[in-house]
User: Which sequence fits this backbone?
């Protein structure tokens, strides 16, 4: 049986009360300023109202909201860039802030928000500059290889090795978080 | 590396867990001013107010498309059903009071003079709908007839992007009915060949509104 998609107003209000702070937090972490935070929160909850996730447990809703908020931030950046008819470049990032950065860079920024320190740890290790160039700067393996005068396979092997180390560190961190919650 | 251009270092679940941990560590801050401001905007967005305060009735009148004159009033729902009205889709029609700031609250009590009432509909299946209104004993009229979709999700009654609203006037009993059919062709045919009947048994759903006595 197909269920009604939109939320009833009471449930929607309860979800808003419970999760609005977290969505504000993500927007601010994503570099949004006051009114931009409002816009992200508004659009995120609007999407929740119109097309809520199947699962209604708090954790599932929270996860859905977080990922949607990230998407909203990226969509907004794209829309603003198109409205300003500007090319997708990094040049404007420093003056206008994260909000106006190109979508790919913004997506990486948002993803790395939660693990920036781990990324930097790995980037300090031998070969770490390639890891940073690949995951933070967004260069392709081929571009890094050209820059270094090496084969693409050498670069990808190096990045893979460091990525595995990163994943190990991440796993440890997540386990620690799990222990704290337990 | 399986995909030399795969830029994802963490998956969404990990990302959320880590961010949430950071949020918790900061004491789960909430900007209450922003929260209230955004909620107000959300309410306005979910139920857009009609263009100007207390203009809803005028906006409605000006915005009516395809107002169909009804010359006959047949209070014969049984006869209507016999003429093939069984395709009518049941609709649960719920009135809401629209505040000047754009917020809505379910109409749990009798409306008062000056109230602006909007409607949400929940149909048992997807289709298109028309709204038929009747004031006191006057002939009913079709006030929305276009390819307005109704779904089995909650639908705010609108036409051409404007919200359908009723302004409660003194001493007027207004009956608002929705007739929903599976498709526009069937609906148009029914409205052309049969007079709209404002009776719960013949339409999809009705609400009767009358201002509370002072």
Assistant:
């Amino acid at each position: 049986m197909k269920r009604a998609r939109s939320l009833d107003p009471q449930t929607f209000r309860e979800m808003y009360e419970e999760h609005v702070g977290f969505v504000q937090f993500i927007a601010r972490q994503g570099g949004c300023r006051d009114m931009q935070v409002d816009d992200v929160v508004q659009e995120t909850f609007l999407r929740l109202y119109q097309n809520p996730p199947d699962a209604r447990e708090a954790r599932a809703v929270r996860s859905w909201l977080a990922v949607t908020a990230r998407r909203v931030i990226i969509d907004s950046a794209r829309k603003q860039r198109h409205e300003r008819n500007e090319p997708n470049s990094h040049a404007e990032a420093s003056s206008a802030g994260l909000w106006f950065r190109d979508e790919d860079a913004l997506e990486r920024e948002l993803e790395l928000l939660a693990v920036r320190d781990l990324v930097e740890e790995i980037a300090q290790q031998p070969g770490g500059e390639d890891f940073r160039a690949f995951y933070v700067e967004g260069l392709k393996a081929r571009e890094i290889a050209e820059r270094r005068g090496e084969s693409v396979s050498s670069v990808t092997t190096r990045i893979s090795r460091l990525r595995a180390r990163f994943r190990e560190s991440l796993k440890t961190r997540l386990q620690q978080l799990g222990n704290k919650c337990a | 590396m399986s995909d030399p251009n795969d830029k994802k270092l963490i998956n969404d679940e990990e990302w959320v867990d880590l961010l949430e941990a950071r949020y918790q560590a900061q004491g789960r801050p909430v900007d209450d001013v922003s929260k209230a401001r955004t909620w107000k905007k959300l309410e306005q967005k979910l139920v857009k107010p009609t263009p100007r305060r207390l203009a809803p009735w005028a906006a409605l009148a000006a915005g009516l498309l395809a107002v169909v004159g009804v010359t006959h009033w047949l209070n014969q729902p049984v006869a209507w059903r016999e003429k093939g009205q069984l395709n009518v889709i049941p609709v649960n029609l719920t009135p809401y009071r629209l505040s000047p700031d754009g917020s809505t609250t379910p109409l749990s009590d009798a409306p008062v003079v000056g109230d602006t009432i909007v409607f949400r509909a929940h149909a048992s299946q997807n289709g298109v709908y028309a709204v038929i209104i009747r004031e006191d004993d006057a002939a009913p009229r079709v006030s929305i007839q276009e390819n307005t979709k109704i779904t089995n999700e909650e639908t705010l009654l609108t036409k051409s992007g404007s919200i359908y609203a009723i302004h409660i006037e003194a001493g007027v009993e207004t009956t608002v009915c929705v007739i929903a059919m599976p498709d526009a062709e069937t609906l148009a045919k029914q409205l052309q060949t049969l007079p709209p009947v404002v009776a719960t048994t013949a339409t999809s759903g009705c609400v009767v509104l009358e201002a509370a006595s002072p």
Summary: Chain A touches chain B through 52 residues (CB under 8 Å).
